[in-house]
């Protein structure tokens, strides 16, 4: 794995551009963050069977019963168990070592929540190691990021409304979101070209300027976006003014026509000859 600077502030700024319909707007341009791109960035399959990690049923799962009897997959406990199994020569322990390695990757960077834990139901999909890659792992990584982004976007709106809400934590593999941002904005040059998965193209470099430039250019993207919103608002206000003026003109024209009609009726009354009554 390449070293990559996890720029927390940049991730937060990217999240500011997330809209409720699961798209990003950067510099007035709309971008989608998809499971396919997560697959290309991480090397995880984005096709295959879906994983259901929301199920609360965790009984009768051999791996949990044997290695995690308290039914919790916290990073500290997973790491401890991983180290314990390393010297074992038993065949089952060797296979469990691989399973726990996958869990360790999930609780560390692929699927962690704010407490560095991941859903217990994950272990159901690890019992048959040969079938592990038949599942769409990129989809579940993508889903976790999107769900947290939706919550984050809502917290931003509430904070902007002066409700005193903390922005909190973005769970999941946010480094994939950073790589996605680099690739779409081209504000930073890759440290290596042509490597796959694409995550390996964005390792840490000695040149800090690309990261600084990324942060600086982000403000320009946001400025363009805000200017676009202001322009749209000004255009909307201008249309409202024009519409009101047109409505005002129509009202005035109706008033003028009404006055002219009254004047014409009055003139006709004045021009009518007096009737002469002749006594017989």
From TrEMBL:
Location of region: Disordered: 223-280
Ranges of biased composition (kind: Basic and acidic residues): 223-252
Superkingdom per UniProt: Eukaryota
Name the record gives this protein: Aminotransferase-like plant mobile domain-containing protein
